[in-house]
Amino acid sequence: MSEATSAAVTHTGHSTGTTGPGLLASLDPLLREWLPRQRWFAGKGRPVTGFSLVAATELLPVSSKLGLIHLLVRAHQPLVPLQSAAAHPADCYQLLLGVRETLPPRLAPALIGRLEEGPLAGRTVYEALYDPRPAEVLLEALRARARIGELRCERDMRQEIRAGLMPRLVTSEQSNSSIVFGDTFILKLLRRIVPGMNPDLELPLVLSREGCPRVPAPAGWLMADLASSEDSYVLGVLQPFVQGAADGWELALRELAKGEDFAAEARALGRATAEVHTALARALPTVTLGRAQLELLVGGMTERLEAAAQAVPALRPYAPDLHTAFEALADLAAEGNTWTAQRIHGDLHLGQCLRSPDGEWSLIDFEGEPSKSLAERRMPQPVARDIAGMLRSFDYAAHSQSPPDTDWATVCRAAYCAGYAEVSGSDPRTDPVLLRAYETDKAVYEVVYEARHRPDWLPVPLAAIRRLAANDDATP
Q: How far, in Å, CA of 343 to CA of 277, rounded?
């Protein structure tokens, strides 16, 4: 263990004048410039008007050659129309700041800025995750189940976490930050955090207890127990790294470009999804959705469609026919039909799946849609929501090349549903009204997203909108 790593585990971590309000005041101008440029910053398009300190902990003394400060800060921004401050408090972000006199050239991409005043005046602060030494501190703290100030590290003692694993930052775009340690573990650090049990830790722990092999079991996790909150915050999760695994999205695109059949993989992925759903239903409570619950669900879908049609003119001609997808579901509920809801993945698509070199599929990233509240993400929902997300993902893959290979998507969608039925005993296609409603809701969301962020991709969800409006089922 390095001297720096040992110091992290033994350091008290109490806030001092160095990590108090004076530090945040001096960081303010630097963070206003740096934070909105980060991929994981949720408030893009609105200026940051200020910061408030939630917690600050020294992980390595800032008086040393290399200091390390863990910060939880709220970024204050103007409210959007109809948004109340009580219902939408300022977002809280997790920051890990390295402190050095000067940055070595290898850390130039991590620069945040040089402080001109405050307790660290004359020193340089940077994104510490680019630096192997601070990353080692985090791993050693998890190994030792350390408590540092208000931070608490826990681990599964059945899994060995070896010391000295070489860290490397994952640089691909993601909504959080990840560090791989020696191709053995991957630490996912949540950036935008909320109080309460995050499903990205909760559900993998549940599935581990159920013996479900389709989700890597957490080996350790980082928490914050704040005096200002009754709930703990989940800050990070350490899981086994699936060495040599292929990302489902990249794998699908590669096979599609080669003209290779992907049906067998889609079928296996359907089986893996059903295994996860079955284990979650066995371990956690399920609920029955009757007429009252379906009216609320359909009402939400309808509101999202109406708002999307206002925001994206290209959607408006299809809105009346899309409404029929939701009306048909409401009609079934009015006739007395019910559906089972349970805990699900919540944001399932090909990019949330990994295939190991031996051909086994794993599901990852159970955080759910970050734009939704934690309470919404933890609500039981029909499994059709996850299934619809995956069906849309096959459609996206097919449209990533020109001309789109719609036959490829149709075959994959059918194979995925068939594989799901092999494990669950229930084919999603036998409930076409529910599946159409969820796929329509997902496609409407995609239209708004693409119109705002990737206009060149807008034709992809619009193609699905045309099919769904015509009620033309492309999953035979």
A: 8
280, 206 contact by CB (below 8 A): yes
pLDDT value for 472: 63
Q: What is the DSSP string of 96-135?
A: EEEEESS--GGGGGGEEEE--SSTTTT-EEEEGGGSHHHH
- Amino acid at residue number 316: R
Tell me the C-alpha distance between 193 and 202, whole Å: 15
Query: Residue written as tokens 């630490």?
Result: 187
In contact, 381 and 342? CB cutoff 8 Å: yes
Distances (CA, A) of 468 to 405, 461, 476: 18, 10, 14
Domain that holds residue 221: 3-240
Q: What digits encode the pLDDT tens for the residues 407-453?
A: 999 999 999 999 999 999 999 999 999 999 999 999 999 999 999 88
Q: Are residues 295 and 232 in the same domain?
A: no
| 259 and 133 within one domain | no
Q: State the Cα–Cα distance between residues 232 and 195, nearest whole angstrom.
A: 6
Q: Are residues 235 and 257 in the same domain?
A: no
The SS3 of residue 414 is helix
Which of 240, 264, 279 corresponds to the end of one domain? 240
